[in-house]
Here is the input.
Amino acid sequence: MTGEQDLQYTAEHEWVDADGDTATVGITAYAAARLGDIVYVELPGVGDEVVAGSVVGELESTKSVGELYAPVTGVVTEVNDDVASSPEVVNSDPFGAGWLLRVRITETPELLDHAAYQQLTGEA
Here is the structure.
């Protein structure tokens, strides 16, 4: 797993760890904290096509429901089944075991670097 400083981010609080033509996607610790205790995760299916900026899933917490946006365009190659059975791992380890899906990238829009994301969230 790439360090948080080396990841790319969206303004909607997803992180992207690109390795060649594959992107691992999750939500940031900032987003997980704002959602509160996550109790349910809905993800796209393997083989589904996703378009950057479109809603591809939901994260439901005891406080609210948050939408998961695709940070890249491509085809879902893997989903983290562990978060379906243990959604709390998204809160406890959002940059590690709480990853959500992997996408074979066909297009990557401009994403934020760590410093720009920190400025966006006021954590800089």
Remarks:
- Helices lie at 29-35, 81-85, 89-92, 114-121.
- The mean pLDDT is 95.
